[in-house]
């Protein structure tokens, strides 16, 4: 049974966007967490959809880590709000998929911070092993 990719922090991911101006919570840009994983989110279109890539710094598999594509969407917002969003990462180096959901906040110092929860699903060859495929 292949080992699924592990994500940076169990249940919570805090990242800081290094490209957008303070006091606005904009998903577009490059984000990095405290474990060194990073993601890049492209422009959010008029319908709230976006694409990008995720490069994890940690994994539970012995496969070489590779940058993986992501697709997601956020609620329509005005420029002063703190949007909720979700995205899916289709891991390029394992047979797993992870979904993230979260919200973009502006903290007391004016930094943009993503607070997320995630759920990883790995492939199983037999329905009897379904119980261990989701983390």
Describe the structure.
With 135 residues, the protein is mostly beta strands. Helix content is 0%, strand content 42%. The protein has no helices and 8 strands. The chain has an 8-stranded antiparallel beta barrel. The chain is globular, with a radius of gyration of 15 Å. The relative contact order is 0.24.
Please summarize what this structure is.
The chain is mainly β and 135 residues long. It is 0% helix and 42% strand.
Sequence-ordered SSE layout with sheet pairings:
Elements: E1 13-17, E2 29-33, E3 38-41, E4 49-55, E5 68-74, E6 84-90, E7 96-106, E8 112-122
Antiparallel strand pairs: 1-2, 1-8, 2-3, 3-4, 4-5, 5-6, 6-7, 7-8
The portion of residues forming beta strands comes to: 35-45%
Name the overall outline: globular
Name the average pLDDT: 81
Strand line-up in the sheet with most strands: 1-2-3-4-5-6-7-8
By DSSP (H or I, 4+ residues per run), the number of helices equals 0
CA-based gyration radius: 15 Å
Structural class: mainly beta
| Terminal CA distance | 15 Å
Count of individual beta strands: 8
Question: What brief labels describe this structure?
Answer:
135 residues; mainly beta; eight-stranded antiparallel beta barrel
């Amino acid at each position: 049974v292949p080992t699924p990719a592990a994500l940076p922090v169990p249940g919570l991911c805090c990242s800081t966007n290094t490209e957008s101006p303070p006091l606005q919570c904009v998903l577009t840009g490059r984000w990095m967490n405290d474990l060194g994983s990073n993601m890049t989110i492209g422009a959010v279109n008029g319908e709230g959809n976006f694409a990008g890539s995720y490069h994890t710094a940690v994994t539970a598999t012995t496969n070489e880590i590779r940058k993986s594509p992501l697709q997601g969407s956020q609620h329509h917002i005005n420029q002063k709000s703190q949007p909720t969003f979700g995205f899916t990462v289709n891991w390029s180096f394992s047979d797993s998929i992870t979904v993230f959901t979260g919200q973009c906040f502006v903290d007391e110092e004016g930094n943009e911070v993503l607070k997320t929860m995630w759920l990883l699903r790995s492939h199983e060859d037999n329905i009897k092993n379904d119980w261990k495929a989701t983390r």
